[in-house]
Amino acid sequence: MLSPEVLTVLIAMLGGAIRVSTPYLFVALGETLTEKSGRINLGLEGNLVLGAMMAYAVSFHTGQPWLGVLAACGAGLFLGLLHGVICSLPRVNDIAVGIALMSFGTGAAFFFGKPYIQPQAPRLEGLALGEWSSNPALKQALLINPLFFLGIAIAVLLWWALANTRPGLILRMTGDSEASARAMGVNPVRVRILATVAGGGLAGIGGAFLSLSYPGSWNEGLSSGQGLMAVALVIFARWNPLRCVWAALLFGAAGAIGPALQSVGISQGYYFFNAAPYILTLFIMIASARAGLAAQSAPGELSIVK
Amino acid sequence: MDGTLKPTAAVAVGGARLRMTAEAIVIPLASVCAAAALFSLFLLFLGKSPGQFFALIWQGGFGSSFSIQNTLQRSSPIILTALAFAVPAIIGLTMIGAEGALVLGGFAAAVTALPLIALGVPVGLTLPLVAVAAMATGAGLIMIVGWLRHARSVNETISSLLLTYIAIATMSFFVEGLLRDPGSANKPSTTPIGKDYMVGSIPGTDVHWGFVAGLVLAVALWVLMARTTFGFAARVTGGNPRAAKAQGLPVGGLILACSAISGACAGLAGFFEVTAIHGQANASLVAGYGFAGILVSFLGRHNPLAIVPIAILFGAIEASGGLIQRRMGLPDATSALLQGLIFVLLLASDTLHGRLAIFREREAR
Question: Could B348 and A86 be called an inter-chain contact, meaning their C-beta atoms sit closer than 8 Å?
Fold first, then answer.
């Protein structure tokens, strides 16, 4: 029998992992979609923060949190469009543009978000899936936001579409070999712009989760770099949308260990766990680089695996 | 025969060089103007005066000796982190780990300073030792990235980003635990090193010595990369690593050396952040200087000398933020938004290089 304290930590971690992982899931799916087309977007942090601000502002003005989610998606689409178009110009460095759009996106979010730091906006309600249980901690942990399930649905859809549909095939072909895409009459520039736009929109939805669900308010320290870590998550998931779910849950669990331990009075030393996913990703990169695995699962046109 | 050819050749080369220089200056300037014009439209839309806005940037950035000092002070960490990006970029590596090297270097500075101070080592010896510790720590971090790139073909961009997060978590681990000053209640920090051990200002100013260090390093690294065989070998490797290897250049050694220089620059930035500004290591070190440096280096085309004026320009925009906030009632993020816009347009303008007819050499018919 588990001692009550261990149980408390485990339940808190379960709930925490689901909560913390949702924004990771959306940025990871967005980045996967973009990278599958052969381009990297390092600027999803900007999409995440601008999305969070837009979601909060729209939810505050309309009273409709779901309209906020739409607005966040729109903000993400806009930044994705900027990235996609600018990076399609010859001689422009995609990594630098990503970082520039990150600073532009967060700058815009802080500029327009100033009036929304104080007021309370309607939040997205979670689905109470723990009603059957009498344990209040478990009830709390199973109060899961619908966006989490939306993320999983998108992951499954992406996984299926990439393998079984014509657009999915075109996307993978463009990412693996620009020359064959051209030979098949596909315009790689257009495919990459579309993939970056769609990926940016997904990252924006991840931002809506931050401001409308957990932590559930808008302020300038809302994101702790989840958007920047999208690149690591995608490597961790080896460009597979289904594995993005597991990668996001793992990163989320590592982030949730701290608060979970705090619930039983341990408040020190958990920073090591925060770093654990990054150390693990680094080791995966080292191992796969040696074995040539990267060449197998990564899109061939992607600059970061060359 | 040679005599008749030479002058024309010299004129042609001189003309080409002039055109290239003109291109390298006119295109970035035009894109800064475009960003300013776009931002003016935006301000008009908000009902604010663009004239007042840019006048305030001038006033807050360069208008008085106080604002000039403020500008230079803010530009110094950016100069150092931009150099940290530029040197590996010259050898063909995109390393974005300056933020991590800055944080870990600053942390190492705070941690090594404390026992030295406790032992009563004089200031004149403590600070150089602490600076060396900070630079060595930063260099060590980025050398891991360089080694993984060279020996294990691990992509340097991603590994440096991961190591940045690992570095920040490492600092938090110690600052919130073992090495936490019990006096730092709200913001966990290491024990302050105390006023006596802080790096002072350049005499007659409020600017700390980090700015001078940035200037000296920018000149030294320009000489190293542009005027020495080491720099030549690094540029050859950056241009074509395979050719460099075929020529017998020690590619691995060059990569490690450039990584070490890069990490040392960023570590030095961390040293000055701790010993000249904060006096202790805490989360304030994670201020985004590493990422700003990447963009400044790109805008300066990874030329160590060009980095300095660009970093000063961005320092001025930051320094004038407070004034703009007070006088025009705009949020403090205004300068961040303007900076972001300038960055995006300047990077996009890279596509114009070599494509504008007026800068192109007229073909000999």
Answer: yes
Q: Using CA coordinates, name the residue in chain B closest to A114.
A: B331
Domain co-membership, B30 together with B139: no
Residue B97 lies in a domain: yes
pLDDT tens figures, A156-205: 999 999 999 999 999 999 999 999 999 999 999 999 999 999 999 999 99
Is B241 a member of any domain? yes
Q: Which of B364, B231, B240 is nearest to B302 (CA)?
A: B231
For an interface test with A, the pick among B159, B337, B338, B349 (most A C-beta atoms closer than 10 Å) comes out as B337
Residues of A in contact with B351 (CB under 8 A): 89-92
- Using CA coordinates, name the residue in chain A closest to B341: A104
B340 in a domain, yes or no? no
Confidence at B365, pLDDT banded by 50, 70, 90: very low
Which domain, by its residues, includes A113? 4-305
Q: Are residues B40 and B68 in the same domain?
A: no
A237 reaches B (C-beta below 8 A): no
Domain that holds residue B165: 49-329
Mean pLDDT computed over B240-254 = 93
SS3 content of chain A, % helix, strand, coil (to 5): 75, 0, 25
Across the range A249-263, mean pLDDT stands at: 82
Number of compact structural domains in chain A? 1
Q: Per residue in B190-222, pLDDT tens?
A: 999 988 899 988 888 889 999 999 999 999 999
Question: Are residues B142 and B172 both part of a single domain?
Answer: yes
Q: Which of B31, B45, B186, B350 to probe the A interface (max A CBs under 10 A)?
A: B350
B298-313 per-position pLDDT tens digit:
989 899 999 999 999 9
- Do residues B182 and B88 both lie within one domain? yes
Same domain, B237 and B325: yes
Q: What distance in Å separates residue B270's CA from the closest CA in chain A?
A: 20
Q: Judge if B85 and B185 occupy the same domain.
A: yes
Tell me how many domains chain B contains: 2
Distance from CA of A123 to the nearest CA of B (A): 25
Cα-only R_g, chain A: 20
Element (H, E) at B166: helix B156-175
B284 in a domain, yes or no? yes
Alpha-carbon distances of B233 from A17, A93, B254, B263, rounded to whole Å:
49, 24, 8, 20
A259-293 b/e (C-beta count within 10 Å ≥ 16 → b) = bbbeeeeeeeebbebbbbbbebbbebbbebbeeee
Instruction: Give the closest of A232, A269, A289 to B153, CB-based.
Output: A289
Question: Across the interface, do A99 and B154 touch by the CB < 8 Å criterion?
Answer: no
Same domain assignment for residues B363 and B324: no
Domain of B256, CATH number, reads 1.10.3470
Chain B residue with Cα closest to A87? B348
Query: Cis bond leading into B122, ω under 30°?
Result: no
- Which pair of structure tokens corresponds to residue A51? 């999305």
By C-alpha distance, the chain A residue nearest B330 is A111
Range in A79-93, A291-305, B205-219, B228-242 the model is least confident about: A291-305
CATH number of the domain enclosing A278? 1.10.3470
